[in-house]
Structures are given as structure tokens and as C-alpha cells.
Specification:
Order of helices and strands: HEEE
Bound molecules: zinc ion
CATH class: Mainly Beta
Mean pLDDT: 90
Strand content: 25-35%
CATH topology: N-terminal domain of TfIIb
Radius of gyration: 15 Å
Shape: flat
Distance between the termini: 48 Å
Low-confidence stretches: none
Number of domains: 1
Largest sheet: 3 strands, antiparallel
CATH architecture: Single Sheet
Number of strands: 3
Structural class: alpha+beta
Helix content: 25-40%
Number of helices: 1
């Protein structure tokens, strides 16, 4: 039981780390999967003034698609 718990925590941390690295690549303009400069912002949703923004990206080259929740840095003053 403990092993399962530790395993799922590890997977969760790994998942978050992986996701952060993907977002870093996208912010530099690269697709995290095929490393081409073909990543495009397809959708942008805001959860209001204080909520996080949901950014959806898609790669036109390999079909990679993912969405990221980013902190909204007080865009409404
Ligand atoms: Zn790609």
C-alpha cells in the first residue's frame, strides 16, 4: 500500500516536472516533441482576474497538443 502511494506521488512529481519542461520549450518557441518551431497557440481562456489562464498549444508539424495553466499576473489592474 505504501509502495503504491509513494509510486503515485513520484509519478505526479515527474508529471509536473515533465509538464514544466514542455511549457519551457513552448515558451522558447519549440515543440517539446519534435523540436521544430511549429508550435502554435490555439486557445486561450482566462479564469477571471485572479484565476489562472489556460493556454492550449498545438504543433502543426507532429500533432502534439497540450494545455497549460499559467498564473495570471494581474491583467486587470
Ligand atoms: Zn511537434
Amino acid at each position: 500500500m505504501l509502495i503504491i502511494l509513494l509510486g503515485s506521488v513520484f509519478v505526479y512529481i515527474y508529471y509536473l516536472k515533465d509538464k514544466k519542461e514542455q511549457l519551457d520549450a513552448i515558451k522558447r518557441g519549440f515543440c517539446p516533441k519534435c523540436h521544430q518551431k511549429s508550435i502554435e497557440l490555439t486557445d486561450q481562456r482566462s479564469g477571471g482576474c485572479s484565476g489562472p489562464k489556460i493556454l492550449s498549444y498545438e504543433c502543426v508539424e507532429c500533432g502534439y497538443a497540450n494545455s497549460f495553466a499559467v498564473e495570471n499576473n494581474g491583467s486587470c489592474g
